[in-house]
Amino acid sequence: MHEITSAYNARVKFWASLKLAKYRQESGLFLVEGTRAVAEALLTGHTPEAIIYGAQSLRTDRARHLIDTAPAHLLYQVSEAALRRLSVRNDPAEIFAVCQPVDVPLDGLDLPANPLCVVLDEPHGPGNLGVTLRVADGVGADAVIIIEPAVDLYNPAAVGAAVGSLFGLPIARAPDRATFLTWYGATWGARPDTRCVATLPEAEQDYSALADLEHPLFVLFGNEERGLAPELQQQANVEVCIRMLGRADSLNTASAVAVILCDIVRKRGRGRYSTPQHTRVPAGFEQPRPSPPPHHL
Predict the structure, then answer these.
(1) Which residue range is the domain that position 31 belongs to?
(2) Quick one: 233 and 141 in the same domain?
(3) What gap in Å lies between CA 125 and CA 135, rounded to an integer?
(4) What DSSP character marks residue 168?
(5) Which of 51, 156, 231, 253 has its CA 20 to 30 A from that of 40?
(6) Rg (Cα) of the chain, in Å, rounded?
(7) pLDDT by residue (tens digit) across 24-43?
(8) How far is Cα 144 from Cα 277, in angstroms, rounded to an integer?
(9) What is the pTM assigned to this prediction?
């Protein structure tokens, strides 16, 4: 374990710089804030470059267990002032980590025989992207494909909103639509059983009518400002909307992803994980549960 007492230490300064895109791009590293996210990095084999915590910052058993079991050479104990310098929150998290990028090239996606893939066309909101990743991971999607130009996947707001799901499933980034379409056309799009679903506010068919979903399935979601690009729409076998019944006429992308993917997974009858979390996560890393309220006589 290494100890750093000054908030102006050169290493702390470098870690803090990773909150900015310029330094993430130069270093090929990004900053993760939060015990759950750091635990997910470790549990999924994405070993951090450094794990950072404060002597007085470990407030939960989960955080203490993580520090007790992490490789000692990765641990950096820093001052509370240093933690505040690293944080993007008013109240800094218990643990931070410095990690390498997790996204893979399209050709590097290792998909099962009948994958469920989420395709995001130029997403721009970091929080929206992070929540979308969390939803996709939660429903057991097999991959998320991001078509650039898009918000930085490693923006602190995106990383924070994903709450560790950045490490939970394969994520690929296509540099542009043409690259995605070339890859798709030469791989899954060439299979006659592949279903490609375009989500469009103006579509006539409601998502609830989707059926025959056991085949390879790609669900396309558009940019919130301009929707799904026409060249992507042309790839679709079917177009669906979320029929709105109230005064609101649309949902943001993350909400739309949640509604449609949950329905698809319910109809498919499966998720990536078939066992409860507490039986597939090592002891000490499970999601903390709130303490029961005190019993008064």
Answers:
(1) 2-99
(2) yes
(3) 15
(4) T
(5) 253
(6) 21
(7) 999 999 999 999 999 999 99
(8) 22
(9) 0.89
